[in-house]
Design brief:
single chain, alpha/beta, Rossmann fold, Guanylate Kinase phosphate binding domain, 2 domains, 4-stranded mixed sheet, two-stranded parallel sheet, 45% helix, globular, binds guanosine-5'-monophosphate
């Protein structure tokens, strides 16, 4: 699951995760970004130092990683493999460059890529500004990045419009369900 910063990936994801029939496991990423109020270490992210992140890169512990507005974000590889082996559908909520790396490693029925888009750029700006605890400079950077990210939507198998949280979540759930069914009947 990917999409520009501020599109509402986190909110839609929480809704999707509620559906236990999808057998999903949410992959908690590692980041060097400072913890925001309300976030918990190990729930939203594993908050680590730059040095620790670099060690994880050096030791090949990350399935993918990317730099995003001055911070690094990555997916712990072992956990993904462990949960896949246990039969879970592992759910990654990551930015576009990371997705490109993941798409190189899995293909066909092993993966489904979904790109969430906002109703408009104006709406996206409102959301980024609305939730932000960050400086104007970082907000501007996130907005510029979002514009560029939107251009990459055609790299994805599915594009979902986040016009309304519940509706978008329903659409994503049915995409996952149909992928699960096509895997079973393969
Ligand atoms: P935020 O700082 O708003 O939590 O996240 C910034 C961006 O990083 C979002 O687009 C989010 O989806 C992305 N992100 C979160 N975790 C990962 C990860 O493990 N890998 C990559 N490539 N991007 C991530």
């Amino acid at each position: 699951m990917s999409g520009p910063s501020g599109v509402g990936k986190g909110t839609v994801t929480k809704e999707v995760m509620k559906d236990k029939s999808l057998n999903l496991f949410y992959s908690v990423s590692m980041t060097t970004r400072p913890q925001r109020p309300g976030e918990e270490n190990g729930r939203e992210y594993y908050f680590v130092s730059k040095e620790e992140f670099q060690r994880n890169i050096d030791n090949n512990n990350l399935l993918e990683w990317a730099e995003f507005v001055g911070n690094r974000y990555g997916t712990p590889k072992d956990k993904v493999e462990e949960m896949r082996d246990k039969g879970f559908n592992v759910y990654l909520e990551i930015e576009v460059n990371g997705t490109t790396q993941v798409l190189k490693q899995y293909s066909g029925n092993d993966i489904v890529s979904i790109f969430l888009i906002p109703p408009s750029l104006e709406e996206l700006e409102k959301r980024i500004r609305g939730r932000s605890t960050e400086s104007e400079e970082v907000i501007k950077e996130r907005l510029e990045k979002a514009r560029r990210e939107l251009g990459l939507k055609f790299n994805y198998e599915y594009i979902v419009l986040n016009d309304e949280i519940e509706r978008a979540a329903e659409e994503i759930k049915s995409i996952i369900r149909s992928k699960m069914n096509s895997t079973i009947t393969k």
